[in-house]
Amino acid sequence: MAKVFEFKSVGDLKQKVESKDLILTIEVYNQIKKAFYSKVNRKKVKAFSAKVGNHDIIDFILERGQWKTSLNTCLDVFIKNEMYEECTVIKNILNELSYEHNRYNQEKHN
Fold first, then answer.
1. Cα–Cα distance, 84 to 102 (Å, whole number)
2. CA-wise closest residue to 45 among 97, 9, 8
3. Vertex 6: Cα angle to 3 and 7 (nearest 5)
């Protein structure tokens, strides 16, 4: 289950996302990794949830097609923070996602 992060305002949430906040990045990475390696072939993942002020909780969902872009962003953040073990896992997932994508395209054209 994705963590729920609390923010004072929409602006605060936007700033954290745009600045590629390390804590949010780690959560996105963990949720994608968990979904990717689960025995169920997941098509989407709840990356994280946000509670803004006294409002309802907003879930941030990533479709499987968005995982590569999100993981590449995570990779950039982790390199800057010298989190090399996580970088290795991300590279492996990205390679497998590319293989998956290529296999799907070959099956589609046959």
1. 27
2. 97
3. 140
Closest CA to 89 of 48, 43, 37: 37
| Alpha carbon 87 to its chain's center | 13
pLDDT tens-digit map of 22-72: 999 999 999 999 999 997 878 899 999 999 999 989 999 999 999 999 999
Output the six-digit token pair for 84: 């090399």
Global pTM reads 0.87
Cβ pair 28, 74 in contact under 8 A: yes
**Separation between Cα atoms, residue 108 and residue 88, nearest integer Å:** 30
Distance CA 27, CA 25 (A): 5
